[in-house]
Amino acid sequence: MSTLSDTDLNNQMVTKAYARWAPVYDLVFGAVFERGRQAAIAAAERLGGRVLEVGVGTGISLPHYSKNCWLCGVDISAPMLRKAEERVAELGLSNVEGLWVMDAEHLSFPDNSFDVVVAQYVITTAPNPEATLDEFARVLKPGGEIILVSRVGAEAGLRRSLEHWFQPAARKLGWRTEFSFERYARWAAQTDGVRLVERRAVPPFGHFNLIRFGKNGGTGDAYQSEPVRAAG
């Protein structure tokens, strides 16, 4: 049996899936993805400045950034974004510059607009993941970082077989189960001016990774991480 093609997802499918998730997203996924969100926010805050959160969803992360970060959020799902707008208004989050319905592969921002681009649980839902990463790199300032939290597929063994088996059902939910780290590494190697800074496992179950890419230029890295390592 062959794996599904890179075009197995499309924006219409993802938009419909996340419209269904919007009313219950925080309840279902809030606690499950909490550690990953904390790790991404901590990494972003070490750089600070202007932060773009792609796939901001219901805005569950927004209140946890420090006021030293100026936040912009985009999401392809209007129902999810309405939840985010309500959250910003209710909590008076004055450091949120704006929230927009936008396709991650076609961001309506100029080149070099942001110090940090954060995307949590987004890349494996993108119809064209590498093109989406290209767009993140385009809007990122030299010296900035792309910070991802993403599910990374198993390379072999029982989990790899289960992921392959579950992929058709996952597709209907709006994401992929089969997505190897090799795709991230290959994208960085083939993209001028981009380097892998860090990869480490985050809960739950070690199936998710925090992945940081740096964009060359600027005044240097805002902080030094431990050497790049594989997820354990």
Can you walk through the features of this model?
With 232 residues, this protein is of the alpha/beta class. It has 7 helices and 7 strands; from the N terminus they run αααββαββαβααββ. The protein has helices at 11-21, 25-29, 34-47, 78-91, 129-139, 157-173, 181-190; strands at residues 49-54, 69-75, 96-101, 114-120, 140-151, 194-202, 208-215. A 7-stranded mixed sheet has the order 3-2-1-4-5-7-6, with helices on both faces. β4, α5 (129-139) and β5 form a beta-alpha-beta unit.
Could you name the key traits of this structure?
single chain; 232 residues; alpha/beta; seven-stranded mixed sheet; 7 helices; globular; disordered N terminus; disordered C terminus
Task: Characterize this entry briefly.
The protein has 232 residues and is an alpha/beta fold. The chain is 35% helix and 24% strand.
Secondary structure layout:
Blueprint: H1 11-21, H2 25-29, H3 34-47, E1 49-54, E2 69-75, H4 78-91, E3 96-101, E4 114-120, H5 129-139, E5 140-151, H6 157-173, H7 181-190, E6 194-202, E7 208-215
Parallel strand pairs: 1-2, 1-4, 2-3, 4-5
Antiparallel strand pairs: 5-7, 6-7
Give the biggest beta sheet: 7 strands, mixed
- Envelope shape: globular
H/E element order: HHHEEHEEHEHHEE
* Number of DSSP-assigned strands: 7
Q: Calculate Rg over CA atoms.
A: 17 Å
Give the quaternary arrangement of the chains: single chain
Distance between the termini: 29 Å
SS field, number of helical segments:
7
